[in-house]
Specification:
This protein is an alpha/beta fold. It has helices spanning about 1-15, 45-60, 60-65, 80-90, 180-190, 200-210, 225, 270-290, 345; strands spanning about 35-40, 70-75, 95-100, 130, 135-140, 155-160, 165-175, 215, 220-225, 235-240, 250-255, 255, 295, 300-305, 315-320, 330. The chain folds into two domains: about 1-220, Spore Coat Polysaccharide Biosynthesis Protein SpsA, Chain A (Alpha-Beta Complex); about 250-345, no CATH class. Strands 3-2-1-4-7-6-8 form a seven-stranded mixed β-sheet, with helices on both faces. Keywords: Signal. InterPro entries: GNT1/Glycosyltrans_8, Nucleotide-diphossugar_trans.
Length: about 350
């Protein structure tokens, strides 16, 4: 009943607040009763992460499988290759939105690309949007995030600190409106303190929603180190930091995974779980399609389209970090003899 009341309340809020900056009225259509899962990808280096996120949402979300919730991917115009867009669609991202690049407002910041996350608040065709960073993977049904009560569109739901009003922007539930989106843009464009070397999405979003955030289950944003030991509890794993599962080839030593984080610690089972999911995705979306990249001349496979590495055989290997200087080819099944998780471990809790 509480969930129904909150949905009715939000519908009223949306009807009242969906207006543009020039006086136009943005009518709430039947489509706007639909919610969305969203992510942001600003360059080719994060495509593999978004592929796995989309695939894991389709695999675990009942609302997605019933076509009640859409998957929306936001990207600055012209950043992604046609091949990457095709793969993203196959992974489940049924709507890809090209946007202007907000990184230009903070050219001194190494994290300026994250400012494009502000565009999520502009997805006015959706009733509610649940954002997950593209370096996340869904482990079990996340649909209960949409049941989180929000007092109004002027609030955001996120994983909060227990000791302050600080909240993480890696996972958020929000009600997109023109008013909030334009207010965030105005802050970014007009306040120099948000454009410096430390500029990033969290600074702008937390500044706007100060004292107006609602807490959500921390299991929506479980750190991968902790998640690897508590897989029966997590809903989503967040691979934060510079080292992502897909940025370097797998390394095995004496039959065990030897990849380590920046502090020299083993990356563990949550890292293996990402790769296990990626190989499943590859078999569904890339294996057969990538064979079309080659022509056979005199019995020799020759790259024809998409510029694949000559040593790439999609039936035996995966091609990761495509169209970047860090691109590599890796054999399929390197982890097949390693213990990932049993069905009981994943279903428990």
């Amino acid at each position: 009943m509480a969930g129904l009341i909150s949905m009715v309340l939000l519908a009223t809020i949306c009807l009242q607040e969906r207006s543009g900056t020039k006086g136009e009225t943005l009518l709430v259509t039947a489509k706007e009763n639909k919610s969305a899962y969203a992510t942001v990808v600003t360059n080719e280096e994060y495509v593999d992460g978004a592929l796995v996120l989309g695939f894991s949402l389709v695999s675990n979300s009942l609302l997605v499988r019933e076509s009640k919730v859409e998957l929306v991917l936001i990207t600055p115009k012209g950043r992604l290759s046609n091949n990457s867009i095709q793969r993203l669609r196959c992974a489940g991202w049924n709507r890809i939105v090209n946007v202007s690049d907000l990184a230009e407002y903070a050219f001194l910041s190494t994290l300026r690309e994250t400012l494009n996350k502000i565009h999520v608040f502009g997805l006015k065709n959706y009733f509610r949007v649940a954002l997950f960073d593209s370096d996340s993977i869904i482990v079990r049904n996340p649909d209960y995030i949409f049941d989180t009560p929000l007092p109004s569109a002027e609030y955001v739901a996120a994983v909060r600190s227990k000791k302050s009003d600080y909240f993480h922007t890696a996972v958020m539930l929000l009600v997109p409106t023109a008013r909030v989106f334009n207010s965030l843009l105005d802050r970014l464009k007009g306040e120099k303190r948000l454009q410096g070397q430390a500029a990033r999405d969290g600074e702008v979003i937390r500044d706007y929603f100060r004292n107006r955030s609602v807490g959500i289950d921390g299991m929506f944003c479980a750190p991968y180190e902790w998640a690897g030991r508590n897989m029966n509890r997590v809903t989503s794993i967040h691979y934060s930091g510079k080292i992502k599962p897909w940025t370097k080839p797998l390394r095995l030593r004496k039959g065990q995974l030897n990849n380590k984080d920046g502090n020299g610690k083993p990356l563990g089972k949550a890292y293996q779980f990402w790769w296990h999911t990626y190989e499943q995705l590859h078999m569904r979306c890339m294996r057969d399609e990538d064979e079309k990249m080659f022509l056979t001349l005199l019995g020799i496979a020759v790259p024809a389209v998409g510029n694949p590495p000559t040593r790439y055989n999609s039936s035996e290997s995966v091609w990761v970090m495509r169209y970047t200087r860090k691109s590599f080819v890796q054999p399929i099944g390197l982890l097949q003899n390693l213990s990932i998780y049993t069905t009981q471990e994943l279903e428990a809790g």
